Amino acid sequence: MKRVYDEVATAVVEGRITVTLDGKTVKTPAGRPLTLPNEPLAEAIAEEWSAQGDRIEPDCMPLMRLAATAIDRVADHRRAVVDEIAAYGETDLLCLRAAEPADLKDRQAQGWQPLLDWCAERYGARLAAVEGVIAAPQERAALETLRAVVDGYDAMSLAALHGVTAASGSLVIALALAEGHTDAETSWRLSRIDESFQAERWGEDAEAQEKAERLRASLFESARFLKLCNHGKIAP
Q: For residue 233, what pLDDT is reported?
């Protein structure tokens, strides 16, 4: 789309914080008003609109994209989104350990077990780790507890939580990041232990590296969105 606006601002319209272009409220792709939870997130999205050149490049506005996803899709399909995120607990990356070599096993245990222990202490939900690529059945009570935790997040946070979970392959990593127990860089590093080990042994694969860069961008964008959504409030 061609840029047809000059002034970008944040405003309160009908009691809700939003972003305006030349005084008009920004709409989502589905035509809904862009209503946001707080001023910091609104300001960050306004900066994305201000940074556009002669043409609008949606790929350069990850925060706007996540907000629109929350409004247009997550809000209407909340249960399905919660189920999809929570399902990662059944096959969580942190629970799938290598049988060999020993140095990879040690690296996984040192990086992943502390997060599983945190999850058990924080939520009373302990997930079991097994060797191999086939996940072991997890205790139903633990999975139901984690689903209830996910269900405690609002639509905006769910959109970002989904992004982190999908990029990392781990519900536990996503929850730890959402609660401030880890940061984006640590979350990314922990999610790539296997890949980093293989790269050290066999070298980088160009195609895999390109995919990794996309996943890393998604995780960092989602992490920033989560932080802005949770500005001034305590995570559930």
A: 57
Q: Mean pLDDT across the chain, nearest whole number?
A: 94
Letter for the amino acid at 114? P
**Which residues make Cβ contacts (< 8 Å) with residue 49, sequence separation at least 6?**
5, 8, 19, 21, 26, 61, 64
Q: Which pLDDT band holds residue 231 (cuts at 50, 70, 90)?
A: low
DSSP 8-state class, residue 73: I
Sequence-distant (≥ 6) Cβ neighbours of residue 67 within 8 angstroms:
28, 34, 36, 41, 45, 156, 159, 225
Per-residue confidence (pLDDT) for residue 234, from 0 to 100: 44
Q: How far apart are CA 61 and CA 82, in angstroms?
A: 24
In terms of C-beta density within 10 A (0-12 exposed, 13-18 middle, 19 or more buried), how is residue 156 classed?
A: buried
Query: What 3-state class would DSSP assign to 20?
Result: strand
Nearest Cα residue to 10 out of 69, 55, 67, 85: 67
- 187-210 pLDDT, tens digit per residue, is 999 999 999 999 988 888 888 899
Question: Among 162, 151, 159, which Cα is nearest to 65's?
Answer: 159
Residue 152 contacts residue 236 (beta carbons within 8 Å):
yes
Residue pair 64/49 in contact by the 8 Å Cβ criterion: yes
Length of the chain: 236
Phi–psi pair at 124, nearest 5 degrees: 75, 25
